[in-house]
Amino acid sequence: MKINHLGIAVKSIEESLKFYQETLGLSVKDTEIVADQGVEVAMLPLGESRIELLQAIDSTSPIARFIEKRGPGIHHICIEVDDITKKLAEMKSAGIKLIDEQPKRGAGGHLVAFIHPKSAAGVLIELVQRTEGDSLEH
Ligand code: ZN
User: Fold this and answer.
1) How far is the CA of 50 from the centre of ligand 1 (A)?
2) CATH 3.30.470.20 fits 6-129, yes or no
3) pTM of the predicted protein model
4) Which residues have C-beta within 8 Å of that of residue 110, sequence separation ≥ 6?
5) Which phi and psi (to 5°) does residue 6 adopt?
6) What's the gap in Å between 93 CA and the centre of ligand 1?
């Protein structure tokens, strides 16, 4: 396992890039709209992992609600696993509170699932599994 990326909720990707791109010197590898999750995503590789900037595409987006409640900031940590279905089953039988009991397609078409912060010391955890034929190359 390793940290695949850190998800950061931002009001504006463009605005945030002034720091992450111009000041820190990271570059944007991919941008994508994940309509299912109501977000626009920008991925910035950083060492072995990446920073994922998340901007709401409408007011019903979970990111819009997050920012309303807590302001912009770290939204989730994404951990890469070999077998997401197996991991979810193990967690479920251990009584872990899952947001997604089944994996779904996230950014980049990868299989992802979220674990409820109540079971993870207050942190929203995303699991991701590399899918055949695609790469999570950094
Ligand atoms: Zn993520």
Assistant:
1) 10
2) no
3) 0.90
4) 128, 129, 130, 131, 134, 136
5) -110, 125
6) 24
